[in-house]
Amino acid sequence: MGKLLALALAGIVAALVGERLVAFRNRMCASRELKPKRLPNCHLIKGIEVGSEDIDILPNGLAFISSGLKYPGMQSFAPDKRGEILLMDLKEENPRPVELRISRGFELASFNPHGISLYVGEDDAVYLFVVNHPQYKSTVELFKFVEDDNSLVHLKTIKHELLPSVNDIVAVGPDSFFATNDHYFTETFLLYLEMFLGLTWTNVVYYSPKEVKEVATGFYFANGINMSPDGRYVYVADLLGQKIHVFEKHANFTLTPLKELQLDTLPDNLSVDPYTGDIWAGCHPNGMKLLLYDPGNLPGSEVLRIQGILSQKPVVTQVYVDDGSIIQGTSVATVYGKDLLIGTVFHRGLHCPL
Ligand SMILES: [Ca+2]
Ligand SMILES: [Ca+2]
Questions:
Q1: Distance in Å, CA 326 to ligand 1 centroid
Q2: Distance in angstroms between the alpha carbons of the first and the last residue of the chain
Q3: Percent share of the chain, pLDDT over 90
Q4: For labelling alongside 4, which of 23, 180, 206, 258 has CA 20 to 30 A away?
Q5: Residue 238 confidence (pLDDT)
Q6: CA angle 285-289-294, nearest 5°?
Q7: pLDDT at 32
Q8: How many whole angstroms from 158 Cα to the centroid of ligand 2?
Q9: Which of the four pLDDT bands, split at 50, 70 and 90, describes residue 79?
């Protein structure tokens, strides 16, 4: 009887694991194959050697790029190199990125930048918020940009128990923001178990010096976050839910769910065109290939433009699709006029005229 019970239990466990595995592979888009769709005259951006995970652009064409992310379980081609913030002036004829100097007193050796967000203050001061993972922990670093000097002055490091695993942020004031947590757990084994089991425990948190609160939850893997140009709506990419969630933002910085847009790909960071309001999403068409990074079977890239997200029928356009032969693991796509910048966690970004 003991053996029969053990066999029955083993059978149930095997069935559950099998069911979870199938569901996990579906969430990862593991069987998706790609038909490349390229844009003419794109070139890889020289001077970005260890990744271009997130990009944000000022109205004057200065693009800020976070480079050198090391993320648990993900391939890194320069595991010992510290991260950096690069600046590229898109108004120049042949823009080349330069590293921004960071003021003394900031712990540069362990700089591991992830999502970023710019905020222009009332006095035209430019603030750069950077998600950082020193020793694989999560902090948000607040910098002030000094253009004359191509430098960042470090203002403060923000740590909070509600910000344990931050992926991306969108600034809403000179020292306040919404942030996504991409995992509930922080320990590597548990965070992978969380993904495998398909728990939807990740969230969005509002932070200000006076108040910190969870404002949305129920995501498999909350990733990119951004806001409509009028500041009324907040967009959140759920990477493993393959969705973009739209929330209405209120004066007290709470969020009300408004709608969801189902995609057939894994959306990472979201950018918003300040003139058209279109959302540009850097996407991973096959999450399994991204995770495994097999040089013989490279992860691909996909860039989507979403027009009219609030309308009855949003228009989703595949702008760029690559099987990985040119760019792998696209994490962001952002536009400045007729320039499209595509970033990736692994290597150089791509600059395409639209
Ligand atoms: Ca961002
Ligand atoms: Ca991200």
A1: 23
A2: 70
A3: 83
A4: 23
A5: 98
A6: 145
A7: 85
A8: 19
A9: confident
pLDDT digits (tens, 9 = 90+) for 224-272: 999 999 999 999 999 999 999 999 999 999 999 999 999 999 999 999 9
Query: Any binding-site annotation on 169?
Result: no
Q: Which of 43, 114, 160, 183 is catalytic?
A: 114
191: its two tokens: 């965070």
Q: How many Cα atoms within 13 Å fall on the side-chain side of residue 287? A: 21
> pLDDT digits over 301-351, tens only?
999 999 999 999 999 999 999 999 999 999 999 999 999 999 998 988 999
264 is in an annotated binding site: no
Segment 195-204 long-range contacts (CB within 8 Å, at least 24 positions apart): 195/24, 195/220, 195/221, 195/240, 196/20, 196/21, 196/24, 197/20, 198/20, 198/23, 198/24, 198/27, 198/240, 200/241, 202/165, 204/178, 204/179, 204/180, 204/234, 204/236, 204/247, 204/255
- The answer to the question of whether 60 is labelled as a binding residue is no
Say if residue 56 carries a ligand binding annotation: no
Q: 183 catalytic, yes or no? A: no
Distance from the alpha carbon of residue 38 to the mean position of ligand 2, in angstroms: 23
Q: How far is the CA of 20 from the centre of ligand 1 (A)?
A: 31
